[in-house]
Specification:
The chain is α/β, with parallel strands linked by helices. It is built from 25 helices and 17 strands. The strands form 3 sheets. The chain has an 8-stranded parallel sheet with strand order 16-15-14-13-12-11-10-17. Helix 1 crosses helix 5, helix 18 crosses helix 20 and helix 20 packs across helix 22.
């Protein structure tokens, strides 16, 4: 069931991503077309006169950037929670708008996919309902969307996407749309685009011309078009009867001076024709009029017709002539048609046998200096080589390929990191197993006085430690382990709810003729709670073997004592890399025979013998590594839960200065302190490390 849910979420994610990427991209490559559509909406809501063109153009670019970026973010699962919610909110707004469009029908096409895909208002509403449902699914289960790229590298995709889509919009605004989905694209034959297939139902159109004379304004058709004394104001073409509508149905050219329809003359001409397209000369960019005039002169030299086609009034045409010195003839055409032909004001169109073979923005006009021969001998007179395939390759190389390579590199790095982590886990499993379990274990700082201090000094030190810790409660259990002669006296001055008492050793016999020995029962009778067993000095100087220690462990437990059991390797054993082997043997020989219940009374103290009193110090990483290993073998013997609850101390030259670093390691639960436990301030400094 979970797999099915994840599949459904990611299917919805893919649907949303691809839809928004396509929608955003076709808007981005045609910012003027998107602006025109926004102005249509504004006009439908009677707001057009209040919204300046710069605002609608900014809105067009912002909308394209938002849709494209959200699509990419959804595809790569970037900021899954936020993006899925933003997409849902956006789809709610879009769906409400398309409900209005479907009911009121203020525009014929919502423009969601620009000119690339035309949808009816009903199809648009259905599409948005499906996308809204998909967005809700992703918003409900954002974490089911698997990332295509790691979180650390998502900023690269985010910034690259935003920069790419904004630059694409600005470039297409400066030049022309990278992909032209309109019926006047390069390679399109306008005359064929106007043809109606045989047998198709014929639509009927009527072009109305608005003219004025002597302050009087009237509308005329081609049937009653007046003489040239009437001044042209505007024209409009409407469909009077439905039928088959050819891709091009509103292309009509009328000479401004005579009113003659020259559409058929232009489209039937064999050879080249230049059309300078300006929907509105009042707002046309006149920065390159010098180049336009030179191109006109070039056309005249080669007997190529050159017309400026506009929807402007005679006043605007005359103003343009005065401003630019234009000598070329002017034609009138429908403004919407001219905006459809080319996304530039002005823009230049070159026809050959009614086929569009060249289109230029006013920012990228042909260089007049390169017009040195007839068009058929120059690149401008040929269809461009970079067709749709070439443009798709450019998009692939500039956007998709870099992101694909980044994704592959990121996934390879993530995979190699996973492999490295797995190998690390295999070599030291306990680092991961018990990484977050430290809080479950008791934290302990134990002092081992060894053979130091007379009775009076020992009692005084115990009293000082007790008073300091009663006044400032420790964050851990504190134990002081004293020589036998101190135990009974020290027990009298300790608050054992704050400071516990332990012995440094006990005998491996119950009782009897063992002069100089102290039994576990005797230790317990003094008030002690703990006993240190297996210390390296007892092993080294007094020959205590694993078997002897095993007996001591059993007797101590039998008398109710808890055990601080020591283990550790010598310098020679460390250099031979036998530390794991040595420590494991010491534990197996003396304490691993205990059952699980008895094990609860064992505290392990790891002592690197080579770091005790030698001036050499084990690093915190070396200590952590060994304690992690010890915990792993405890887990093997008694199970994971028992290992998690076993306190393991470090017993090698621990001081107030290095205690915080040592105690920060996940497997170090405290310290067995030697010389530093003989001064209250030093010992308390180590204890206080647990408060840092």
């Amino acid at each position: 069931m979970a797999k099915l849910r994840i599949f459904a979420v990611n299917l919805c994610r893919l649907l949303l991503a691809l839809t928004f990427i396509l929608s955003g991209y076709v808007k981005a490559i045609d910012p003027l077309g998107t602006q025109y559509k926004l102005k249509d909406y504004a006009a439908a809501m009677h707001l057009a006169e209040y919204i300046p063109d710069w605002l609608t153009l900014t809105g067009a670019i912002t909308l394209a950037m938002t849709e494209f970026a959200l699509g990419i973010f959804m595809l790569f699962a970037i900021r899954r929670h936020l993006v899925s919610k933003l997409l849902t909110a956006l789809m709610v707004v879009m769906t409400l708008i398309t409900v209005w469009i479907f009911i009121a029908n203020p525009v014929k096409d919502c423009g969601c996919f620009g000119d690339a895909i035309k949808l009816t208002n009903g199809e648009t509403l259905l599409k948005n309902i499906v996308l809204l449902a998909a967005a809700i699914v992703t918003a409900m289960r954002p974490m089911d969307m698997s990332r295509l790229i790691s979180k650390s590298n998502q900023w690269i995709v985010t910034n690259y996407t935003l920069v790419y889509i904004v630059c694409t919009s600005l470039y297409c605004l400066y030049a022309l749309p990278t992909f032209d989905f309109r019926p006047y694209h390069i390679g399109a034959n306008i005359k064929k685009g106007m043809e109606i297939p045989e047998g198709a139902e014929q639509p009927e159109f009527e072009t109305t011309f608005i003219l004025k004379k002597n302050g009087q304004t009237r509308e005329f058709t081609l049937d009653n078009y007046p003489d040239s004394t009437w001044e042209f104001v505007d024209s409009k073409t409407i469909q009077t009867r439905q039928g088959y509508e050819p891709p091009i149905h509103d292309f009509s050219l009328t000479l401004a001076e005579t009113g003659d329809d020259i559409t058929d003359d232009v489209l039937s001409r064999k050879g080249y024709t230049f059309l300078l397209i300006s929907p509105s000369l009042a707002y046309a960019d006149d920065g390159n009029f010098g180049d336009i005039d030179q191109i006109y002169e070039y056309a005249s030299e080669h007997n190529i017709p050159f017309y400026c086609v506009t929807a402007s009034t005679d006043d605007d045409i005359n103003r343009w002539r005065d401003l630019t010195g234009a000598e070329y003839p002017f034609c009138n055409a429908d403004e919407t048609t001219l905006k459809t032909i080319i996304r530039s004001n002005p823009g230049l169109l070159l026809l050959k046998d009614a086929t569009v073979i060249g289109k230029w923005s006013h920012n990228q006009l042909p260089d007049p200096d390169e017009l040195t021969a007839s068009p058929d001998q120059l690149p401008i007179g040929q269809l461009p080589d970079d067709g749709v395939t070439g443009k798709l390759i450019k998009v692939l190389l500039t956007f998709l390929l870099p992101l694909t390579l980044l994704t592959i590199a990121d996934r390879l790095w993530a995979w190699s990191k996973w492999v490295r982590n797995k190998e690390k886990k295999e070599s030291n499993k306990i680092f991961q197993i018990f990484k977050n379990k430290k809080k479950m274990r008791k934290k302990i700082v134990a002092g081992n006085w060894k053979m130091n201090l007379n009775l009076q000094d020992g009692v005084a030190l115990a009293k000082e430690i007790n008073e300091a810790l009663v006044a400032d409660k420790p964050n851990c259990e504190v134990i002081i382990c004293t020589p036998f002669i101190h135990l009974a006296s020290v027990a009298q001055v300790l608050d054992q709810n704050v400071v516990a008492l332990g012995a440094e050793n006990c005998a491996d016999k119950v009782k009897g003729a063992y002069t100089g020995e102290v039994s576990a029962e005797m230790v317990k009778s003094t008030g002690a709670q703990y006993v240190i067993l297996g210390h390296s000095e007892r092993r080294q100087y007094y020959g205590e073997t694993a078997e002897i220690l095993k007996e001591k462990v059993d007797l101590a437990l039998a008398n109710g004592l808890k055990i601080l059991f020591c283990c550790g390797e010598t310098l020679e054993e460390r250099q031979a890399e036998k530390q794991n082997e040595v420590v494991k043997a010491e534990l197996e020989g003396s304490v691993f025979h205990l059952d699980a219940e008895a094990w609860k009374n064992i505290v392990i103290a790891y002592e690197p013998i080579w770091a005790i009193g030698t001036g050499m110090t084990a690093t915190s990483d070396q200590a952590e590594e060994m304690l992690a290993y010890i915990r792993s073998i405890v887990a093997e013997k008694y199970g994971q839960e028992a290992a998690e609850n076993t306190s393991i101390l470090y017993g090698g030259s621990c001081k107030a200065s290095n205690a915080p670093e040592l105690f920060s390691k996940p497997n170090i639960d405290g310290g067995l302190i030697g010389g530093a436990s003989l001064k209250c301030a030093d010992f308390k400094g180590i204890i206080d490390a647990w408060k840092k």
